[in-house]
Design goal:
This protein is of the alpha/beta class. Helix content is about 35%, strand content about 10%. The protein has a single domain, classed as Peptidoglycan recognition protein-like (Lysozyme-like), CATH 3.40.80.10. The longest helix has 21 residues, at about 225-245. It is globular, with a radius of gyration of 22 Å. The structure holds zinc ion.
Length: about 260
């Protein structure tokens, strides 16, 4: 009886709301050693529109509640809508590598494209220049250049299968593996591999479709063995890249004593 009563008390205690900090309970001592937070991911989109002015109107409408840091027209014109250090509203409900607030950590780039057409050369040339600048300025790792479909599987499918991911990877943005891919070992776990690449484990089927859209031009009939081989190759490419890349300074305090 006494044990049961104790258990009930513990459960009730567990439900009690925590008391908030009383006013002034947190002592504040300002450190001069900080700077603005910086983006560590780039998320690419297509607008789904036929005219850049229409996309621009949507992305700047206070009713629509959507934006991006940059919009690139078919002619290569780059329009900046939100400062890099501010949080644009482009990714929505998302997951990448366990991060569930991709908007807070990323730069969003919209490419004006209706989703059913090749991306214009001038537009991709402009994008590559912008990505080079962002990568260098914020020290963004190669693997962190991803798509809206990657971070919002089952909800978004942009940019479309027309998007030239291989060309981006050749320029240092995102991962790529050319077919044919060497077979993955038998013990290779595809679900774990997709999670390790960054995809949400909460929506495994949709995550696999986003993976195919990005790395296999949306070829959903790719055999299971080929999908496993592709994921195995990409994971190896990622780790080779990360272990080979010099880890740049994260701030002036690289000589952290802790
Ligand atoms: Zn999008």
């Amino acid at each position: 009886m006494r044990l049961a009563a104790l258990a009930v008390q513990l459960v009730l205690a567990g439900c009690a709301p925590l008391a908030p900090y009383p006013e002034g309970a947190i002592r504040k001592v300002a450190s001069p050693n900080f700077d603005a937070r910086r983006p560590n991911f780039v998320v690419l989109h297509h607008t789904g529109s036929d005219f850049v002015d229409r996309a621009l109107a949507t992305l700047t409408s206070s009713e629509r509640k959507v934006s991006a840091h940059y919009l690139i027209g078919r002619n290569g014109e780059i329009i900046q809508l939100v400062d890099d250090r501010d949080r644009a509203w482009h990714a929505g409900f998302s997951w990448w590598g366990g991060n569930t607030d991709v908007n807070s950590a990323s730069i969003g780039i919209e490419l004006d494209n209706n989703g059913d057409e090749p991306f214009a050369d001038a537009q991709i040339d402009a994008l590559l220049g912008l990505l080079a600048d962002l990568k260098q300025r914020y020290n963004i790792p190669r693997a962190n250049f991803v798509s809206h479909a990657d971070v919002a599987p089952g909800r978004k499918v942009d940019p479309s299968a027309w998007f030239p991911w291989k060309r981006l990877a050749e320029n240092g943005f995102g991962l790529w593996c050319d077919a044919p891919w060497p077979p993955a070992p038998e013990s290779f776990d595809m679900a774990l591999a997709l999670t390790a690449l960054g995809y949400s484990p909460l929506t495994p089927d949709a995550s696999r479709l986003s993976f195919l859209l990005h790395y296999a031009a949306g070829n959903e009939s790719l055999s299971v063995d080929a999908q496993r081989a592709l994921a195995f190759c990409l994971l190896n490419a990622r780790y080779e890249n990360e272990s080979g890349a010099g880890v740049d300074a994260q701030g002036p305090a690289d000589a952290m004593p802790y």
